[in-house]
Predict the structure.
Amino acid sequence: MRQKLAAGNWKMNGTGPALVELQELAAAHRATRSEILICPPTPLIHRAAETVSGSPIAIGGQDCHVETSGAHTGDISAGMLLDAGASYVILGHSERREDHGESSETVRAKARTAIAAGLKVIICVGESLAQREAMNTLDIIAGQLSGSVPDVVTGENLVIAYEPIWAIGTGLVPSTEQIGEVHDFIRARLDRRFGEGVGGSVRLLYGGSVKPGNAAEIFAVSNVDGALVGGASLKATDFSPIIAALDTA
Ligand code: PGA
């Protein structure tokens, strides 16, 4: 049985006062069946980890450098994330792929470094609207998966997030059939590459405009083991009902 995962990606949002949202989440979900993860901006990771200490909430980073240390001004290593209290890192988010020109090859190298440091990785894949309209979605996903996922993964240290770029922050959501098609496809690809023992243990998250109002419907789709949530993870009042929907899915 794969434990469900409700993951929040705060992106470049939140300073000290936002930690109160974590206190609220921790108080509301003491008895959660799902795993809860919040990935705040890097300067908040240490305080966030202290805030949720003793609760079922885990803390993650949003990116890390491919090297373990060195002359890389402004960058953050996987070991630093771990030291600050993170247990996960999101890698290859489409905003990183677009804003920072990250290739799947880079994402794969970062994932190798992060796993070696002891972090679990959430590797993001997803097609653009043009790629979907050209009926290339599954080819794009296949390429991103084989390119971005390193060989060293296990069912415990890898999570895949399917995030159609056109659904991120837009309020647009694929149909449940479209989500199911991609999630079943990802599961089959992982099974084929890593065997069903590993492939069947990797959690697959859907991401892109998940809200309290559509969460239950999305969580009922086959091979959806949770969500990677952006905007609706910033406020406990929005994220809480999403966690509750996952707990009962
Ligand atoms: P969104 O973002 O929930 O705001 O659409 C999702 C993501 O980018 O992870």
Observations:
- The chain has eleven helices and eight strands.
- The mean pLDDT is 97.
- The pocket of 2-phosphoglycolic acid is lined by residues 9, 163, 168-169, 207-210, 228-232 (CB under 6 Å).
